[in-house]
Amino acid sequence: MDSSSEDYIVIKAHEQGVQVIGLTRGQSTKSHHTEKLDRGEILIAQFTDHTSAIKIRGKATVLTKYGTVESND
């Protein structure tokens, strides 16, 4: 699959230490990558052949092509 056609999301942290965790595809779902964001930092993440889900811990705004979601711990 061409990675340039994959979906992107934008995550903006509203507090220190927001965790963004990439989860794998396949027989068993596993964490394969973790980022920690400080307040005000923005991360642009992409779904790929290896990443099927993204978990966010902490207060953040998540922008997708489907709309905006607020996470509140």
TrEMBL record:
InterPro entries documented for this protein: MtrB, Trp_RNA-bd_attenuator-like_dom, Trp_RNA-bd_attenuator_dom
Name of a matching Pfam family: TrpBP
Gene3D superfamilies for the chain: TRAP-like
Superkingdom field: Bacteria
GO MF term (any one): RNA binding
GO-annotated biological processes: DNA-templated transcription termination; regulation of DNA-templated transcription
Residues annotated as domain Tryptophan RNA-binding attenuator protein: 5-71
Keywords for this protein: RNA-binding, Transcription, Transcription regulation
Subunit structure: Oligomer of 11 identical subunits arranged in doughnut-like structure.
NCBIfam families per UniProt: PRK13251.1
Family stated for the protein in its record: Belongs to the MtrB family.
Protein name (Swiss-Prot/TrEMBL): Transcription attenuation protein MtrB
Originating organism: Paenibacillus roseus
Lineage, broadest ranks: Bacteria, Bacillati, Bacillota, Bacilli, Bacillales
